Amino acid sequence: MKYEELDFFEFFESEPTYLFEKEAGICSYSYEKDDFKIRASLSCYEDYMRVFISYKESTVYSGEIRNIEEIRKFDTDILKVITDRNWIFLKKWPNIGIDFDERLE
């Protein structure tokens, strides 16, 4: 899986927290806006990410993205996750959300 830590830092506007030692390659990022929160747990070595979106502490979306090839900043407020079959967009503006599109290339 190819990604830049700087893209995550700029999107989530925070440093990662590590669930174990940094070398284990499992980290978590989160961002809050109004009563919405998006959190992503990334497993660098196993090429997957878990995404949680909540509103006032109630889960709106929870899912796991597997077979990630690349994650990159698409826009200031959008991270693009490229898998073997989909393009997935994590958004924080104008609202926190996630969009799934079938991969065209």
Short description:
With 105 residues, the chain is mainly beta. The protein is built from one helix and ten strands.
Write structural notes for this entry:
The chain is mostly beta strands. 8% of the residues lie in helices and 59% in strands. It contains one helix and ten strands; from the N terminus they run E-H-E-E-E-E-E-E-E-E-E. It has one helix at residues 5-12; strands at residues 2-3, 17-18, 26-33, 36-43, 48-55, 58-65, 68-75, 78-83, 86-91, 97-102. The strands form two sheets. It has a five-stranded mixed sheet with strand order 1-7-8-9-10, with helices on one face. The longest helix has 8 residues, at 5-12. It is globular. It starts with a strand and ends with a strand. 17% of the residues are buried. The mean pLDDT is 93.
Question: What is the assembly state of the chains in this entry?
Answer: single chain
Secondary-structure class:
mainly beta
The low-confidence runs, each spanning 5 or more residues with pLDDT under 50, are none
Mean pLDDT: 93
Count the E strands.
Answer: 10
Largest sheet: 5 strands, mixed
How far the N terminus sits from the C terminus, by CA atoms, comes to: 18 Å
Largest sheet: spatial strand order: 1-7-8-9-10
